[in-house]
Amino acid sequence: MIETVLFEYLRGVFKDVPVFMEIPERGIPPRFILLEKTGGGFENQIGYATFAAQSYGASLADAATLNQRVIRAMLDAVILDEVSQVDLNSDYNFTDTTRKRHRYQAVFDITHYVTP
């Protein structure tokens, strides 16, 4: 599953920042990365997926800096055997008004191989 592949990849890259696929109910750290698949499909064993990577930080500058690190890491994910292409769709300030937390979001279009 491409979700697991990218999640484990980011966890390996970001040893200093926790990476989650859902926000923990308790013990939310001041800075973390949230990875979420927002769409996708496949044709002829080639998958197409859209992922949002949300970078939470202690300040807006911290979230923006973490966002830039996430962008570099995700673009480098093309080194993975399962991934054939990574494109940055967009990135922007996406402050979490519900939790009152500083956050940036980067959206990626991923082309990957589908395994049976």
Describe the model.
By secondary structure, the protein is an alpha+beta fold. It contains 2 helices and 5 strands, in the order H-E-E-E-H-E-E. A hairpin with a 2-residue loop joins strand 2 (32-43) and strand 3 (46-57). It has a 5-stranded mixed β-sheet. The N and C termini lie close together (10 Å).
Q: What's the SSE blueprint?
A:
Layout: H1 2-13, E1 19-20, E2 32-43, E3 46-57, H2 60-76, E4 83-93, E5 102-113
Parallel strand pairs: 1-2
Antiparallel strand pairs: 2-3, 3-5, 4-5
List keywords for this structure.
single chain; alpha+beta; five-stranded mixed β-sheet; 25% helix; 116 residues
Summarize the structure.
It is built from 2 helices and 5 strands, in the order H-E-E-E-H-E-E. The chain is α+β, with helices and mostly antiparallel strands and 116 residues long.
Percent range of helical residues: 25-40%
Give the DSSP E fraction (strand runs of 2 or more residues). 35-45%
Number of distinct beta strands? 5
What's the total helix number? 2
Helix-strand topology string: HEEEHEE
Q: Main beta sheet, described?
A: 5 strands, mixed
**Helix- and strand-based class?**
alpha+beta
Order of strands in the sheet with the most strands? 1-2-3-5-4
Low-confidence stretches: none
Through-space gap between termini: 10 Å
Mean pLDDT: 95
Shape: elongated
Q: Nearest-angstrom radius of gyration?
A: 14 Å
